Structure formats: structure tokens, C-alpha cells
From TrEMBL:
Keywords: NAD, Oxidoreductase, Proline metabolism. Belongs to the aldehyde dehydrogenase family. Residues 1-35 are annotated as: Disordered. GO terms for cellular component: mitochondrial matrix. InterPro entries: Ald_DH/histidinol_DH, Ald_DH_C, Ald_DH_CS_CYS, Ald_DH_CS_GLU, Ald_DH_N, Aldehyde_DH_dom, P5CDH/ALDH4A1, Proline_metab_enzyme. Pathway: Amino-acid degradation; L-proline degradation into L-glutamate; L-glutamate from L-proline: step 2/2. This is Multifunctional fusion protein. It comes from Exophiala viscosa. Residues 34-501 form the Aldehyde dehydrogenase domain. The lineage of its organism: Eukaryota, Fungi, Dikarya, Ascomycota, Pezizomycotina. GO terms for molecular function: L-glutamate gamma-semialdehyde dehydrogenase activity.
């Protein structure tokens, strides 16, 4: 069984890769470890962090590989990722899932929809999106001339930085640019280092040349320092916190001002969210309750699209909270290896400390009423109960604070103040605008919310949860403080990694310098 294979013997070793080969140093040299969030004392994976010279060498190797890779016909590049999709869905499916369960604390369902289904979808759909881009050619050519668009890859390299919470995101951040002929320096999160290594291993087995994607184990600041110092940096493809992206943005801006870069680097990012559910007086309450539990508490609230604030019409509040308590009584929190738990641990000690500190403060806050939860246990793993607070004040700071954990703040609004609550939702949320949802059966209320909350969420849903965008159905991304809204799972995002060139050829001889009006 893949789960057993990934968990024993532990820890697994993530190799240091150079030129596609394992060049890991001897075990006597210092290394780093990734721990299991469900069993915090257990080391799941070990790796040796890259040095500055390692990162520089990786960039050099990628740039040397660039010409041959971009000259490779698109059909051959596409074949690599289509083969990889088959390996993800078949040969490596359960090993990827097991690595995601153990390393990231996901239960079997969440691991399946991430590491198997979504990753394979990214590889397959990106090929289709790339074909769509390449097909965009001039609609008209005058007689005697021909024009076309050359969808070149970027001239330099792409720096990809992926988060801990989705194996598929890392796979997409590197594969989209590479599919278009780019070379990529990839720094995955240490918290999902083994699952990320499996993604790299699969791509190599699928036929990816050894230096097209450089897999780097290392400290984020060190790798970033080296990457951002290179004039060949053409793009950053990032998923993570808004604060980190703002820092990257500022450093790139400084480099542009100093004329450090050959290009103006493209910045592509999907970052944080303080996502909302809105329950209208016409809502199907039972449906809203179930969707809210999934949106707020699956994977311990660690999805960037997770719901963490909710506004409930007063006439529906009693039923909503009653059913919420009833449904949550069925929800088990525990280690993913037990399979039964609906939700598991948060990712690490830092996340656990941040969230539990907020819970301790909230439990003492007279402006908040604890509806359910409020407890946690860090004796073995980083486990936090699904927690809901009802705020007496609509302006409570929890409506703006992103915790990235299983904590939901609720507010009850008078039915007649639907317009006012739409304004408040748009204004609140910590400056983020990633996902949001309305639960209602009144078409006028739904339409009003769609219009009034047009810029409050990049992905807006009706009568369903804020999580679970599916490639090919809902492209994903938000604006404001939630990123550049380039929409992962679309041709739009891939276009950010192209440098289109326009070509024109004339077939006729020019007989005169003068125009007819000069006669």
C-alpha cells in the first residue's frame, strides 16, 4: 500500500538534484527536516538546504538548457505533461496521496482531489490552454502580405515559489511556464517537500529534460536573494501570503528602478483571503450550514479559499446555529492516517501557536460569543477543533484578520439591512478579495449581491461553498490584496509567461516613396 510505503521506514530522504542527478552530500553534513503535522515529533522527510552557490549553479544550468527546450516543438513539450498526467492519475496516484496525507495533514478525500485529480487536470488542461494561445493569430492579412504572432517564451527564467497546502499548486506553478518553453527555478515549501519532489520525479520520468525545472531545497530568503539578483529574472510565479508577495513586489520594484533586470519581470500571484458566506433570509439554511462547514473546516481551514467570516439574516440565525451544532457534532478531528476524521491538524507549530493564541484571546473577548469549539490539543499533533464565534459588533477585528485555520466569525444582521450588509462585506475582509458566496433563493437578492459584491471576490458562488474551484469549470484567483487575479486554470495565466512577437512579411515590390496624396 502506498501509505505504508511513504510512512515506513521514516523519514524519507529528499535528494539534492543537479543536472537531473542525485548529488546529495554525505549524511554527516547538516540537514533539515519536515515533520508530520499529525505527529509533531515524527520526522517525515529530510533534505539538505541549498547554498547560494547551489542556487546560482541551478540558474546557470537552467539558462543553458533554455534554447534547446524552447526550440523543442510544442507537440513534444506537451507530450511530456500529458504523460505526466497519466503517471499522476495511475502509477503514482496513491504515493502522491500518501505523501500529501503524511506531509501536509490532509485526509484521503482532500489528498485525492489535490494531489491526484487537480494535478492531473492542470497538466491536461494547460496543454489545451496553450493550444488556444498559439492559435491566436491575426484575423486579417491584406493582399500581398502575411502576418503572424510568435508566442515566444520569456527571455530569461521563471522563479516559482509554491505553498505547503496544495501539491497541485506547486505542479501548476512550474508546469505552465515550462510547457510554453520557459525554464523554471522552483522553491517548494519545506512542509510539503516530499510531495513536491514526487511531482518533480514524475515530470522527469515523463521525459522532461533534466535542467528545464530546477528543484531547489532551501531557505526561502536565501533562494529569493540569489534569484532576484539575477538580471535574467523574467517572472515570478507565486502562491503564498500577501505579506510575502508584497515584500517580493517591493524588491522587484527596487531592482527595476536600479535597472537590474533585462526585462520588466512579470509578477503572477495568488495570495491570501478573508472569504465570506452571506446567508439571505430566503436561503435554504440546511444547505448553507453544510456548505459552510465544508468551506470553513475541511483541511482545518487551510485553503486560501476557505470561508472565515459569515453574515446571517436574523430570521434564519436560530435555525442556522442549531443545525450547525448538530452537524459539527458528527465531525471528527484527527490524524489523516485514521481515515475517519473529516479534518486534521494545522501544518506546523507556528500555525498552531498563531491560531490558538487568537482562540485564547477570543474566548476572553466580551464582544464575542463562543458558538462551538474553542479547544485544541497540541500534545501529539497540531489539532484544533472547528471553532465559531458570534460577534456582537459587525466591525469586530476578526472580520478582517486572516488566521488560516479552523476559525469562523459570524454576525447576525437584521433582514431589512441586506443592502447595508453588502456594503460592509465589500469594505471588510482585510483588504482581500478572493472568494465569496451568497445563499439565497430570491433571484433579486442574488442579482443584487452579484452586482454589489462585484469586486469583493474573484470567485463568487451562489448556493455553494467558497472552496473547490475545478479546473475547466472555474478558473481561480482574486484581486485587491489577494493577488494579481491571473486565474490559474486558464489561458490567461499562461499568457503571462509569453513574450509575443509580431511578424509581417511583404510579397510585393514598393514602386514609389510618394503616397497618392503627394501627387
Amino acid at each position: 500500500m502506498a501509505y505504508t510505503k511513504s510512512s515506513a521506514p521514516a523519514p524519507v530522504r529528499v535528494p539534492t538534484i543537479r543536472n537531473g542527478e542525485d548529488v546529495s552530500p554525505q549524511s554527516s553534513q547538516p540537514g533539515s527536516a519536515a515533520y508530520m503535522p499529525s505527529e509533531a515529533s515524527s520526522v517525515f522527510a529530510t533534505f539538505t538546504p541549498a547554498t547560494e552557490s547551489d542556487v546560482s549553479a541551478a540558474i546557470e544550468a537552467a539558462l543553458k538548457a533554455k534554447q534547446a527546450w524552447q526550440d523543442t516543438p510544442f507537440v513534444d513539450r506537451a507530450a511530456v505533461f500529458l504523460r505526466a498526467a497519466e503517471l499522476v492519475a495511475g502509477k503514482y496516484r496513491f504515493e502522491l496521496m500518501a505523501a500529501t496525507m503524511l506531509g501536509q495533514g490532509k485526509n484521503a478525500w482532500q489528498a485525492e482531489i489535490d494531489a491526484a485529480a487537480e494535478l492531473a487536470d492542470f497538466y491536461r488542461f494547460n496543454v489545451s490552454y496553450a493550444e488556444e494561445i498559439y492559435s491566436r493569430q491575426p484575423t486579417l492579412n491584406e493582399r500581398g502580405q502575411a502576418g503572424r504572432t510568435d508566442w515566444r517564451p520569456l527571455e530569461g527564467f521563471v522563479y516559482a515559489i509554491s505553498p505547503f497546502n496544495f501539491t497541485a499548486i506547486g505542479g501548476n506553478l512550474i508546469s505552465g511556464p515550462a510547457l510554453l518553453g520557459n525554464v523554471v527555478l522552483w522553491r517548494p515549501s519545506p512542509s510539503n517537500i516530499y510531495a513536491s519532489y514526487l511531482v518533480y520525479k514524475i515530470l522527469r520520468e515523463a521525459g522532461l529534460p533534466p535542467n528545464v525545472i530546477q528543484f531547489i531545497n532551501g531557505d526561502a530568503e536565501l533562494v529569493t536573494k540569489v534569484a532576484l539578483a539575477r538580471p535574467e529574472l523574467s517572472a515570478i510565479n507565486f502562491t503564498g501570503s500577501s505579506d510575502v508577495f508584497r515584500s517580493l513586489y517591493g524588491k522587484i520594484a527596487d531592482g527595476v528602478r536600479e535597472k537590474k533586470y533585462r526585462d520588466f519581470p512579470s509578477l503572477v500571484a495568488e495570495t491570501s483571503g478573508k472569504n465570506f458566506h452571506l446567508v439571505h433570509s430566503s436561503a435554504d439554511v440546511s444547505n448553507a450550514v453544510k456548505h459552510t462547514i465544508r468551506a470553513s473546516f475541511e483541511y482545518a481551514g487551510q485553503k486560501c479559499s476557505a470561508c472565515s467570516r459569515i453574515h446571517i439574516a436574523e430570521s434564519r440565525a436560530e435555525q442556522f446555529f442549531s443545525e450547525m451544532k448538530q452537524e459539527l457534532s458528527k465531525v471528527e478531528v484527527g490524524a489523516p492516517e485514521d481515515f475517519k476524521p473529516f479534518t486534521g491538524p494545522v501544518i506546523n507549530q507556528a500555525a498552531f501557536d498563531k491560531i490558538t493564541k487568537a482562540i485564547d484571546e477570543s474566548n476572553k473577548d466580551s464582544r464575542l460569543e463562543l458558538v462551538v469549539g474553542g479547544k485544541y490539543d497540541g500534545s501529539k499533533g497540531y489539532f484544533i477543533e472547528p471553532t465559531i464565534y458570534s460577534a456582537k459588533e459587525v466591525d469586530h477585528p476578526l472580520f478582517d484578520r486572516e488566521l488560516f485555520g479552523p476559525v469562523l466569525v459570524a454576525h447576525i444582521y437584521p433582514d431589512a439591512e441586506f443592502d447595508q450588509i453588502l456594503t460592509k462585506i465589500d469594505q471588510q475582509g482585510g483588504g482581500f478579495a478572493l472568494t465569496g458566496s451568497i445563499f439565497a433563493t430570491d433571484p433579486a437578492a442574488i442579482r443584487k449581491a452579484e452586482v454589489r459584491l462585484r469586486y469583493a471576490a474573484g470567485n463568487f458562488y451562489t448556493n455553494c461553498k467558497t472552496t473547490g474551484a475545478v479546473i475547466g469549470q472555474q478558473s481561480f484567483g482574486g484581486a485587491r490584496g489577494s493577488g494579481t487575479n491571473d486565474k490559474a486554470g486558464s489561458a490567461n495565466m499562461l499568457m503571462r509567461f509569453t513574450a509575443p512577437r509580431t511578424l509581417k512579411e511583404e510579397y510585393n515590390h514598393l514602386d514609389s516613396v510618394l503616397y497618392p496624396s503627394n501627387a
